[in-house]
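Readers of this paper often ask what the protein records in our data store actually look like. Nothing more is needed to write down the fold, since each code stands for a local backbone conformation. Below, we set out a record of this kind in full and without editing:
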Amino acid sequence: MIPYLLAWWRGTDKPDKSRNRKGSTWVLSIVGDRIVAADYIDSPLATRP
């Protein structure tokens, strides 16, 4: 799944790097062989000031 997702992202806009902190995750909704939604869940870890 990950190689497919990376190939797809290369052909589209990329996710914002500032939203990819350690402990965060993406939830992918898939119908058949298509990703129909990608929801970001932020890290539960505290941020440093």
Summary: Residues 2-41 form one domain. The first strand starts at residue 25 and ends at 31. The beta strands are 25-31, 34-41.
